[in-house]
Amino acid sequence: MRRTGVDQAGGHVVLGLDAGTTSAKAVVVDRVGEILATGGSDPIAVRSTPDGGREQDPEEIWQALATAGRRAIEGLGSGVGVAALAVAAQSGSVIPVTVEGRAERAITWMDTRFQSVPENWSDDVAARIRAVSGWMPTPGVGLSTIVGLQAPGTRQPGADPTTVSRWASVDDYLVFRLTGQWATNPSNAAGMQLMDVTTRTWSDDLCRLAGIDPGSLSPILESGSIAGELAGEAAAALGLDAGTPVVIGGHDQACAALGLGVVDPGDLFLSAGTAWVLTAVTDRADVASLPPSLNLSPHVLGGVWTASENLGGLGAMLAETPPARIQEAFEKCGLKVRRALEGAGEFAAGGDELVMVGGGIRFSELVDVLADIIDRPVVTRPEAAWPALGAARLAAAALGWTPHKGAP
């Protein structure tokens, strides 16, 4: 937790929250974009089952978010009021909510029980999913998980369609805990693989494939719009005033891109953590021209999308590489990124530089090798709660405080 100053322009700040898979983070930002305080939670437990399940307790996710936010607020001292807040969240995980309103588990994107679901779809079905959702059929997202949970003979506890009133994910569950209202956003809804990526609405066709009614999904509101007001119990948990506006946030990767200033068509962003993900910003929601390697999702800003490719566990590979072979590993990473950029074609052609964050930036030689291989500058950003900062910027923009563009 840190404090660098107090906003003197009215005494108001915004709170950005990030519900990641492993923990929650929070930042407090003033009217001019300066980070005044930060907070974090303890790790969020992931419970494994013998058949490949990877689940979390939604209540623990909420408690982690509340803890991170409260710790950040406590770093401000007295006399500083929070004017609004927003949440960035992981995507792909599924939370079945019972007709009694219970949310007992989150089936995470790491769950491997339903890997066979997309493998069993016909080529025609797979093509239909791709054309509508912008994503190649894949396990670990809402569509395949919901189908797997309801499969005859393998139906999971708590997934009987007659007992489930809502199929939520982490983001809309947290909005509900904050406001009492259910709402998701286009960038997180993309991870359900049930949304039409061009219209940013739930697809009747994909919902039929999942065996659910679109009414069992949360309304999709644009990032930066108002979800509602902070309810009393949530306000007490965060240490804030009830009635504080809660702004719709977005997917953690898209919010990180906003925090980094990766918002214009052609901008490129490499997240180099345990897994590496390459993202290009585009103003074209043209799935037909999208290379097979890329998945298309809405950005948290209107009028632009993100085209992303998961490059695999390159960070894990680097961690396991002996020092004598590290140069070879650096070159392997660089070649992987170059092939991804070449495969992305015109979607990545306009970027003058590549913004890079994550553990990979600790290797300065890796950054140099990467820049040489891809023949463009690589600009690194320090380790920071970038998704939380992006969420804070959405909250600030909803109040008319700060522009979107530019990392601090």
Q: Secondary-structure blueprint of this entry?
A:
Elements: E1 12-19, E2 24-29, E3 35-40, E4 47-48, E5 54-56, H1 58-74, E6 81-89, E7 95-98, E8 106-107, H2 116-119, H3 123-133, H4 142-149, E9 164-168, H5 170-179, H6 186-189, E10 195-196, E11 201-202, H7 204-210, E12 226-229, H8 232-238, E13 245-251, H9 252-260, E14 268-272, E15 276-282, E16 295-298, E17 305-312, H10 314-320, H11 326-344, E18 354-357, H12 364-374, E19 378-380, H13 386-398
Parallel strand pairs: 1-6, 6-13, 14-18, 18-19
Antiparallel strand pairs: 1-2, 2-3, 4-5, 5-8, 7-9, 10-11, 12-13, 14-15, 15-17, 16-17
Helix pairs in contact: 4-7, 9-13, 11-12
Explained architecture:
With 408 residues, the protein is of the alpha+beta class. It is 31% helix and 22% strand. A six-stranded mixed beta sheet has the order 3-2-1-6-13-12. It has a six-stranded mixed beta sheet with strand order 16-17-15-14-18-19, with helices on both faces. Strand 4 and strand 5 form a beta hairpin. The longest helix has 19 residues, at 326-344. The protein is globular and about 55 Å long. The two termini are 18 Å apart. Residues 1-11 have low confidence and may be disordered.
Number of strands: 19
Main sheet: strands, sense, barrel: 6 strands, mixed
Mean of residue pLDDT?
90
Stretches with pLDDT under 50, minimum 5 residues: 1-11
Distance between the termini: 18 Å
Supply the helix-strand structural class. Answer: alpha+beta
